[in-house]
């Protein structure tokens, strides 16, 4: 990976709200509308709480099929600038989305123990397709940040629905894989005794099992592991979602860490929109970097979405093998999403 990506992989986002306050109050660009679709859920509520504290946001529009009036009333009593609006049911989705600069989508069902992310496809594919259709209609130029699983299929669904809706530019549609980066940073800092605030591990590929590839050879600060330890920490990162699903024992999947990661990605999107330099995040996007037509790599973000794709960079032989195993798996999930979208009306 280009050294610039390594240098800037950790963006200045919600992990440093104070910095964000300073940045935006100095430039006065606190003018953005952010919509959260699925705002009443396990991720939606704490993520909306974090977004309510983000000074760049002027309006925070919360949409769900249930409970948004209550969530919006509750958040609106917080003494921060963002104005909160609650929207419930399909007939209020247009109002929620109109004028949005960034849309974050954690709508849909989460896993229970024993399920794969792909087991969520039957329920979540149509939820994401419906919401994508509305985004293409009401805010076609907004950044779209898709959290709903299976991300490896829901992002292709969204892009295909955009194309069907006549919106050909999909360079602002992102699958949020930030939680994989956040986990990698946390686990490697813990293993190596690093200051976690200074650790950056790019994570490439997709967002399920073996498609999640932490590029530990490009970790900043640099670090190395004996092969068995390297394989163990790589597998822990790949299975981290399942670790949480098991620990929650039927009560859902990661919500709080995902809220943090989602708010971080949304803040990076706002930084990019405001013209800030060196905003780099890994995300799952339409891509020509590998034979899989969607792939996550470190991306330089700008006002128009992806400004530069840093690609794979130099991979170790072990990481190259992980990419080889990932690509066919991703291709299956992408095809499944695209076929679903083709038949969706
Ligand atoms: N990308 C990632 O790294 C991660 C993704 N996820 C995924 O995020 C999704 C949400 O997870 P949770 O918040 O824990 O689930 P949850 O069940 O707590 O919340 C989901 C919310 O979506 C709402 N919803 C359902 N259908 C909707 C529709 N048509 N329009 C708008 N809202 C709708 C529900 O009413 C609920 O409030 C799941 O698919 C989960 O697998 C979870 C963790 C990490
Ligand atoms: O594991 C799940 O189902 C939720 C998820 O995507 C994660 O935590 O990475």
TrEMBL record:
GO biological process: malate metabolic process; tricarboxylic acid cycle
CC annotations in GO: mitochondrion
InterPro entries: L-lactate/malate_DH, Lactate/malate_DH_C, Lactate/malate_DH_N, Lactate_DH/Glyco_Ohase_4_C, Malate_DH_AS, Malate_DH_type1, NAD(P)-bd_dom_sf
Residue span, Lactate/malate dehydrogenase N-terminal domain: 33-175
The name this protein goes by in its record: Malate dehydrogenase
Family that this chain belongs to: Belongs to the LDH/MDH superfamily. MDH type 1 family.
Active-site residues (renumbered): 207
Domain of life assignment: Eukaryota
GO function term, MF aspect, one: L-malate dehydrogenase (NAD+) activity
Assembly notes: Homodimer.
Positions contributing to substrate binding: 111, 117, 149, 183
Residues in Lactate/malate dehydrogenase C-terminal domain copies: 177-340
A Pfam match: Ldh_1_C
Binding site for NAD(+): 38-44, 64, 124, 147-149, 258
Keywords per UniProt: NAD, Oxidoreductase, Tricarboxylic acid cycle
Catalysed reactions listed for this entry: (S)-malate + NAD(+) = oxaloacetate + NADH + H(+)
UniProt-listed SUPFAM superfamilies: LDH C-terminal domain-like (SSF56327), NAD(P)-binding Rossmann-fold domains (SSF51735)
EC number(s) given by UniProt: 1.1.1.37
